[in-house]
Amino acid sequence: MNIRSAQATLNEIRGGELLEEIATHIHEATAAVNEHQKKAVITITLELDMPKNMKNLSDPYLVMTGDCSSKLPKADTAQTLFSVDADGNLTRDLQRAQTDLPLSIKKAGT
Fold first, then answer.
1. pTM for this one?
2. Arithmetic mean of pLDDT, 3-21
3. Do 10 and 19 form a contact (C-beta atoms < 8 A)?
4. Fewer Cβ close by (within 10 Å): the C or N end of the chain?
């Protein structure tokens, strides 16, 4: 059995556009991983199907579609600290939270 290389087949999907898209996703993922020190995921999807109007032919024909997508790391989003007021609402007024803390000042040596 003589199996054709995957690269030769992939090169023919959409006239080589799929391989160009894969290369672009790899390039963008590399830059994002270097910048954010987090992983990226590249997904290549190939679908093979037999056209409905060609199912009864003596020679089999298939159609192949291909797609590439990526999930790139992002910078961590900034967090905002809130406290909860007496009515159960979030507030940026942190004074209540500070007065609830059991803090005291002690003199050195005591």
1. 0.66
2. 95
3. yes
4. N
